[in-house]
Amino acid sequence: MKQIMKLPMLTADAKLAEIKRLYFTATRQTIQADLVKALDLLKSMESEDERERATVYMHGLNEMRRDWSGQKGKVRTKKSEVRSKKSEL
Fold first, then answer.
1. Which of 3, 15, 36, 77 has the highest count of CB atoms within 10 angstroms of its CB?
2. Distance between CA 3 and CA 11 in Å, rounded?
3. What is the pLDDT along the chain (89 residues), one digit of tens a residue?
């Protein structure tokens, strides 16, 4: 027989505290999983006011993910690729 584990319902403050904890403890190795957990917590918040309080931490987690993944934040278009190839010639 499989035992069912009950999960506690978190208050808005507890959800925000968990997002903060994820932000302050994130590492290069954990950032993707931390961001997924934080997004799940954010989605479970009931009001826009609750979500707004978490915005700065969510932006920070996303910025860390982008920095650690090596993305520059710019999208390369065909025109920029053509220009860079012309400048190499």
1. 15
2. 25
3. 566 655 568 899 999 999 999 999 999 999 999 999 999 999 999 999 999 999 999 999 999 999 998 866 555 455 555 555 555 55
Q: Is residue 4 part of a domain?
A: no
Q: Is 6 a domain residue?
A: no
pTM tops 0.85, yes or no: no
- Domain region containing 77: 12-88
User: CA–CA separation, 89 vs 87, rounded Å?
Assistant: 5
Report the alpha-carbon distance of residue 57 to residue 59 in Å, rounded. 5
Domain count, the chain: 1
**What string of DSSP letters covers 40-67?**
HHHHH--SHHHHHHHHHHHHHHHHHHHH
